[in-house]
Amino acid sequence: MSALRQATEAVLKRWDSPAWDWNAEGPTADLMADLRAALAAEPEPVRWVHPSDLELPCCAAFAHPTTDAAKKNFVPLYAEPPARQPLTEDWVRSRCAQSWVFETALQWARAVERAHGIGSKE
Question: Of 44, 53, 56, which is closest to residue 1 (Cα–Cα)?
């Protein structure tokens, strides 16, 4: 857990404690709600692995890089996968060799996304 995440969680824990004598509403409460939302929105990697270790997962050596520069050389691993986003129409269009295939390819892509819980349910 990063130092920033630990500090944020400590502030939120203190805010939620009975000894804290602030109003449940107002600018400070709004800031606390923003902190909670930010923590929930960005899961923290549980481990980091070098890309070459992904080829032989039985031999992977996990790392804990501490600087942003060091993290560029590793792949983050999450306890839960990040939310998946639907493909953009531009991405689908760029993969269609013929322009007349686009609408069918887009419908197919959206059906596959829905089957995997990605995007809208329509």
Answer: 44
Q: Tens digit of pLDDT for each residue in 39-71?
A: 777 677 777 777 777 676 566 566 667 777 777
E-strand spans in the chain? 47-49, 62-63, 75-77
pLDDT of residue 60: 59
Integer Cα distance of 48 and 95 in angstroms: 32
CA 101 to chain CA mean position, Å: 32
Instruction: Output the pLDDT for position 118.
Output: 84
Are 97 and 72 in contact by the 8 Å Cβ rule? The answer is no
Of the candidates 82, 87, 94, 91, the residue with the CA atom closest to the CA atom of residue 120: 87
Given a contact cutoff of 8 angstroms between Cβ atoms, the answer to whether 84 and 101 are in contact is no
